[in-house]
Design goal:
There is one protein chain. The chain is mostly helical. It has ten helices and no strands.
Amino acid sequence: MAQHAFASRATFAREADPRAALERFSRRLIGLARVHLGDRLRHKVDPEDVVQSVYKSLLVRYGGSAIAAEAWEGLWGLLTVITIRKCADRARYYHADCRDLRREAEVCNGPECISSWLQAPGREPTPDEALDLAETVEELLAGLSGGEQKIVELSLQGYSTQEISQHLGRAERTVRRIREQVRKHLEEQQAEAAT
């Protein structure tokens, strides 16, 4: 047993390329990161990215200097500690209030998810909404003069203030004023309906 430990220490000491030694640990470190990240966090953080960051931290710390034979023996312990701390940092980052993973919706798989998407609301108004809108526009236009009605109709069709002004031969200021009056009138109606 003591001879085996001495042989492995001698093997690490003879290792010419530190990268080759680090590659031996890669699979085990990825597995360790996978366990510490958990299922929910793994959707945001790749365990391999964590291990790459671990290696980067190690290489930044030791740079091009040779690692002593005694240090090679404790290398696995050092790499595991760095990996666990990096996983904890990622978990802390994704559990901050502004990006808390627990507030995200679960990914849904199966036939029940498909049926919920089929029932998702479309962009078109429902018949009741269309009727309400038509009645509101009709009431609004009924209370306006002919010139004001034309400005509102063109506004509802998506024309800009400048385009309406040119089309009707009216000043832009007048068009803006009428549009503002109509907007205020609609806001008052909405406030009355809410109370």
